[in-house]
Structures are given as C-alpha cells and as structure tokens.
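pinned: reference chain
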Amino acid sequence: MKIIIVAAEDFVSPSARRAWAASGVEIVGPITPEKLDAKMLAGASGVLLDVSLDASVLFEASETLMLEEVAFLFVVSHAMPESAAKPFVVNDDPEDMQAVFEALARESHGGQLH
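pinned: its structure tokens
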C-alpha cells in the first residue's frame, strides 16, 4: 500500500514512519502540494492532506484528487485530547492507523468522507 502525505517536512515522526512501514505502508513524503501530479499519484492507495495547510492549497489539492479519482483524507499529526472531534491522525497508534486505512477504503469505493 502506498500513501502520499502532503504536509510540512516534519509532519511524520520517525516512530510513526516505522509503525506505518511495519504495517506494510509505503509513505511517500511529506511532499509539497505542487508535487502532486498524475505520475506521483499512480499506484497510490490514497493521499493524506495536512489540515493545517492554507485553505486555498487544500481546495486545489482536493479538486485535483477528485478529478484523478484518488481517495484522500484531511489529517493531523497529533491527536487533540481536548477536542470533541475525532480527526484522522498520522502517528504510531495502531487504532489511529486502522481508522485511516478503513476510511481510505471507504473513500476509494465511492464514499464521501472528506
């Protein structure tokens, strides 16, 4: 499974990268939004977009991904314990990883999750 992460360079911690690799996930990135193109997206199971990116960047990237029919989710790098919302989190927690896998699977089968 190949997942592309669009975020700042320090978005994925070393422990998260190791945990995802141990689960059979190849993380590509983090990359800048400008690097998203058809060649990069080929073979990707999905794209994770850092929700803290500029809104116009997120909008443009999500439009590109919808046109290319690539599943994507908006994510954060750390859970927010005080928040009532349960965001998708890119970390080394197996439950958070499973939530991302399941959401991408639903998304790639026509669900409107984003």
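why pinned: The mean pLDDT is 84. The chain is about 35% helix and 20% strand.
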